[in-house]
Every structure is written in structure tokens, then in C-alpha cells.
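User: I'm putting together notes for a lab meeting next week and I want to include a structural view of one of the chains we've been expressing. I don't have a solved structure, so I'd like a prediction I can at least talk through. The sequence is below, exactly as it appears in our construct file.
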Amino acid sequence: MSMLSNQYKLVKQTRELLFEFCEGLDSSHYTQELEAFGWGSIRNLHVHVAMCYQSWLKRFGLKQEHADIKEGQIKNVEEMRRLFEKVDRLVLQFLIKYEDAPYTLLKGKVSWQEEEEELSVLWLLTHTMTHEFHHKGQIVSIARHLGYTPADTDLIIPADKGRLIEQKH
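Assistant: Thanks for the context. Below is the predicted structure for the 169-residue chain, given as C-alpha cells.
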């Protein structure tokens, strides 16, 4: 497994921690819209993250069409997990095609500009993962606003360091 696959594996581990935390929320809080937060709710942020992977990796990177998911189509964390299983399959497809050529430049249209953009495979994957982490922070903030104490969803905790070093060798 290459570095990019390993990196995405770490992202999936932190996503799982967040999903486990979200399963402990009152179900109405998962979908509760709060005007003070961009995208409105924890569920909406999760959908937005999934659509970012679809837009950048599937549409831009793999030149495949994708259907937009509307927030209301997802009712709970279990359904969101199923959506992210599709995201995981998409990332795997993207990595199978491009992982050995991370600096390959891909050209395509970006919805908010006229001219085509040229972006590397590495940029596309990095952007989608950092975008997920940005919104993970917002999800945790919303949960705190709703009175919850979120679990630690940081990427690497001290107990992980030994395991990560072992994986490297």
C-alpha cells in the first residue's frame, strides 16, 4: 500500500471516530439546522464533504458524472455511513488509477470559473481530505454548541505513534 492509500486510511479512522460520536447524539441533533453555522447541521456538513469527494475526484479527476445528494435524502448516521462507503469506493478507484503518478496534472472545468483548471492528483486528494478535516472541526463545534463533549477525533493520538512506526517498517 502506498503513502496516499495509507494517508486515506488514517482519514477513514478519524471519520469512524466521528461517526461513533455522532451515533451517540440525540437523532434530532444530527439534523438540527443552526443558522450560525455554515451548511446548517452536522448531517448537512457530512453530505457536503461527501459531495466534495464526488466533485473533485469523480467528476474532475476521473471524468465521470455523479448525482448530487441532497441533505434531506440522508436521515441519520447509518445512512451517512452508507454514503461514505460509496466515497471510500470512489477514493479507491481514484487511487488505483492515479496513485503511482501523484504529480500527474489533470485538466478540467471548475463550476465557478470560465477557464479550465489544471490540478495534480496529489492536490485533488489532499484538497478533499483537508476539506473533510476542516468540516470535521465544524461538526465538533456544532456538537459543543448543542451541549455535547465530543470524543477526540484528532488524526494521531500518542498511543498511535508506536503502531504507526511499526506499520512503516
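A couple of points you could mention at the meeting. Strands lie at 105-108, 117-120. The chain has a mean pLDDT of 89.

User: Perfect, that's what I needed.
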